[in-house]
Write a structure and sequence with these properties.
The structure is a homodimer of 128-residue chains. Chain A has 128 residues and is mainly α. Chain A has one domain: Orthogonal Bundle (Arc Repressor Mutant, subunit A), CATH 1.10.10. A two-stranded antiparallel ribbon of chain A has the order 1-2. In chain A, strand 1 and strand 2 form a beta hairpin. The longest helix of chain A has 14 residues.
């Protein structure tokens, strides 16, 4: 069956057909959802992600952005040609990860003392 | 302030006070939530986790079980003394990760073709 452009392919090396496992194949690490969180918070540029308090290493950030783009979760747009400078935006699929972040936030609020909650998370700017 | 036994400590090396980052400090990898999923599915023994389709490497499984126990998300109980054999159960805190798994499942159902959904997830057996 031909896949439509709105579908995300399961990588050939996915571990199982379990939905949780398939999601973890894409975002199952310490950093990827931090980038998604930053996009929800209105950050779009490499330097903005780097400036987040988690101090994400440059090479890891570059790798995660490439992986998110390849998975169809973010879109890269150049806002300057010379030297080339890009901004990143959530796609609809990427923005649909929001409930996962919210569930994490609610769990942390309940069980991890000391976390600081952002009062109002703005709707993300979406580019498909 | 003294922490109560029902609270999970933020590790000293947590990356920030962001709730999402703090949750990822605990479960942000490819495997930990697979173990939590298995516990929801009624698996309790090392060999049962190993037999899951994701083929989790033994050393990684042992490490994740230790980490989950240290974080207060699972409880280890010995059902045999000689040789010692243990079973693992979700604590209330661990079972409260359920909404994160459900949010992942819903995202996967919507965006990843080919995932296989378990019809009825039983309520997990909880030990605090």
């Amino acid at each position: 069956m031909k896949k439509s452009s709105t579908e995300i392919s399961i990588p050939d090396d996915h571990r199982s057909a379990c939905p949780v496992a398939c999601v973890l194949d894409i975002v199952g690490d310490k950093w990827t959802l931090i980038v998604v969180r930053d996009l929800f918070l209105g950050k779009h540029r490499f330097g903005e992600f780097q400036a987040s308090p988690e101090a994400m290493p440059t090479n890891i950030l570059a790798g995660r952005l490439k992986r998110l783009e390849a998975a169809g979760l973010i879109k890269k747009e150049f806002y300057q040609d010379n030297p080339p400078r890009a901004e990143y935006f959530l796609t609809s699929q990427g923005a649909a990860l929001g409930p996962i972040l919210i569930a994490m936030r609610e769990w942390a609020e309940r069980y991890i003392p000391g976390v600081v909650l952002v009062a109002n998370i703005p709707s993300p700017e979406i580019r498909d």
